[in-house]
Write a structure and sequence with these properties.
Strand order of the largest sheet: 1-2-3
Strand content: 5-15%
Shape: rod-shaped
Structural class: mainly alpha
Bound molecules: zinc ion
Order of helices and strands: HHEEEH
Number of strands: 3
Number of domains: 2
Helix content: 40-55%
Length: about 130
């Protein structure tokens, strides 16, 4: 039985009390308990939402930490070394948004660039 149902049950029992003054006082306390219970349920919902948002931020921070451990900085770019291989990553996109965008060379002889922010990185070494 939840707190709300328990309070309703007490409210039903109070109807069987015949002393008017006692009945009034008991009903007042039941209403106070219902009000307090409603406030606690609302606070509980707020805390659950805050917990959910905190977990999401922790997951994102953990993911970025794991990614950061696999990065080295050289030639003005980051190099990411993970299960997909060793490749240059756009430093602007990583530092601004935490994104690991691999640099691409659009055609032979051109500098590698970021497909997202379009920045060129002339010193990046492509594999
Ligand atoms: Zn970029």
């Amino acid at each position: 039985m939840g707190a709300v149902d328990a309070i309703k049950g007490v409210g039903e029992l109070v109807k069987q009390v015949h002393d008017a003054e006692l009945k009034t006082e008991m009903l007042k306390r039941v209403i106070d308990a219902q009000t307090e219970c409603a406030a606690l349920l609302e606070k509980n919902a707020e805390l659950r939402e805050e917990l959910s948002q905190t977990k999401a931020r922790l997951d994102a921070a953990t993911k970025q930490t794991v990614t950061r451990e696999k990065l080295t900085f050289a030639d003005d770019v980051y190099y990411l070394n993970d299960e997909l291989g060793y490749r240059p990553i756009c430093p602007a996109c990583f530092e601004a948004k935490g994104l690991t965008v691999p640099l691409k060379r659009r055609s032979p002889g051109t500098a590698p660039n970021c497909p997202l922010c379009r920045s060129f990185f002339h010193n990046a070494k492509m594999q």
